[in-house]
Amino acid sequence: MGKYAKLLDRVLYSGKTTGFKFNAVCKLLLLLGFHQRIKGGHHIFTRPGVYEIINLQPKSGQVKVYQLEQVRDIITRYGLELNDDKQV
Q1: What is the homologous superfamily of the domain 3-78 according to CATH?
Q2: Which of 26, 36, 60, 64 is 20 to 30 A removed from 53 (C-alpha atoms)?
Q3: Is the full-model pTM beyond 0.90?
């Protein structure tokens, strides 16, 4: 199991909302098929077929608690998974 597959499991199943590195969560979203644009400190993620927009801002190099909960909810609601053909 690769690094980002472990991170995905941790996001979905650990129940924790703190201690997630901002850059790692951004990379995970890219591997899940999201497109990223950056405007100031806002990292905005969109994906075809996902109607919500994910807007992340780093706080001391970590993902904010409510933003991680939003990421978890969207991944679960849409059943998003890492593709085996992508390097993780």
Answers
A1: Hypothetical protein. (3.30.920.30)
A2: 60
A3: yes
